[in-house]
Amino acid sequence: MELVWLRLLLPVLLCVSLVAYLYSILWLRPERLRQKLRSQGVKGPKPSFLFGNIQEMRRIRQQLTESHQEQEAGITDRFSSNYVATLFPYFLHWSRVYGSIYLYSTGSIHALFVTDPDMVKELANCKSLELGKPIYLQKELGALLGMGILTSNGDLWAHQRKVIAPEFFMDKVKGMVNLMMEAANAMLSSWENKVDSEGGSAVMMVDEFLRNFSADVISRASFGSSFSEGKEIFNKIRQLQMAMAKQKMLIGVPGSRYLPTKGNRETWRLGTSICNLILEIAKRHEHDSVTSVNKGLLHSIIEGAKTAPSSSCTPADFIVDNCKNIYFAGHETTSTTAAWCLMLLASYPKWQSSARAELLDVCQGNPLHADMLQKMKTLTMVIQETLRLYPPAAFVTREALNDIKLGNLNIPKGTNIRIPVALVHRDPAVWGPNADKFDPGRFGNGITGACKPSHMYMPFGVGARTCAGQNLAMVELKVVLSLLLSRFEFSLSPEYVHCPAFRLTIEPGKGVPLILKKL
Length: 519
Description:
The chain is of the alpha+beta class. The chain has helices at residues 2-38, 54-72, 84-87, 89-98, 117-125, 135-140, 142-145, 154-164, 170-174, 177-197, 207-223, 227-245, 262-288, 296-306, 315-347, 349-363, 370-373, 377-389, 421-424, 428-431, 446-450, 470-487, and strands at residues 101-106, 109-114, 131-132, 201-205, 395-400, 404-406, 409-411, 416-420, 488-492, 500-502, 506-508, 513-518. The chain has one domain: CATH 1.10.630.10. It is built from 22 helices and twelve strands. The strands form four sheets. The chain has a five-stranded mixed β-sheet, sandwiched between helices. β1 (101-106) and β2 form a beta hairpin. The longest helix has 37 residues, at 2-38. It is globular. Residues 72-76 have low confidence and may be disordered.
């Protein structure tokens, strides 16, 4: 009889224990975190169980997007309108209600939303490894980023930074200018053929060309191969990016990434395929590098995998995850910025003419070389202003890996911190009353002259986690834009639709069609 009761009671006890555990993980712990911040004056919208503020975000998006579309009808300068109101209307709404620091939740992820300059400065100056990248990125975006340099923390991140960052020091990047020119000239020659075949003027949708150009550069510069060898990887990473972007509102919802939905199955399939392709390239490279003099980034990553902290990841994961990070960040973000640059130069012909005149003055009819790039002040200002208005990364994100104090706030372990770069970059209090306008001249005296305080400009992140590849990105942008300006005059096609889209990066939603004419 007792055995029968035990058999009946055991499942009940297990269910009660499971419910208690889930209640503690999904509600009790988060509520304690929220209470610690509320007691310090941090407010925010009230979350619901399991979904946090996701449902409210959807409701606000619907309401404010409709209102914003009505306002947009009266705007004459469509390129200067603040797209943040369309992409992230809930953040604007909550900022008006709760101020420059507030707490909100997406599922089980609890984030401090920060636009306060003093708190941003605290984050920028914090060197502690206790403030790292959000752990959820490794889980929710694992197929795309894994535990590479963009998402790892602690000793593993420090090791990755030591391995990868030197490959992007300026002296090495200058040595890549010739291969950048080769890739750019190949692309532009195809454009010239198109223009010639259509009688001197042609409409080109430039996005895919720029994506392939940037992929070619990162393939040659970092992996010692041509774009054709890595083409399948780039294509699958792009497919994976698009698939994950469709599910971004579910990030943080407990268990959602384990469900065998169509989107998840596609993510798993692409993630496995990318992993296998990278390991094939790494294996081939390791074999070829025995006799190669020019080792490059891939060699450094392979060697770095052998000395990585053993408890953090396997050597294969170290190679795959860091290669995925370089492939994604190294080509997707740069090509997107180049597309925005061309859109703005096409829309503001005076700045296009000014940048071209400066280019001709600097080059004096000579072939472009690395030393010329630093003399191109106007082009640099155009790129900086483009990165201000259309930063590729929408957010700078951090997580308190242990309890930590920032300014006057005691941040409990597990709290995420998000700085909305696109919003900060358009703050009139920082940039002046023309914050929404395209005005490269604001950078005439550098970043410190453009905004007060200067740490509010963060296209490549802030603090110790600033993008290791920013030198490569800036030089690559200068090279491709310089060569394009020297060979074409371009304007925006009437087919262009201005609708910035958030697909893990902020990119032109419907592409950038340009009308090209040879000079």
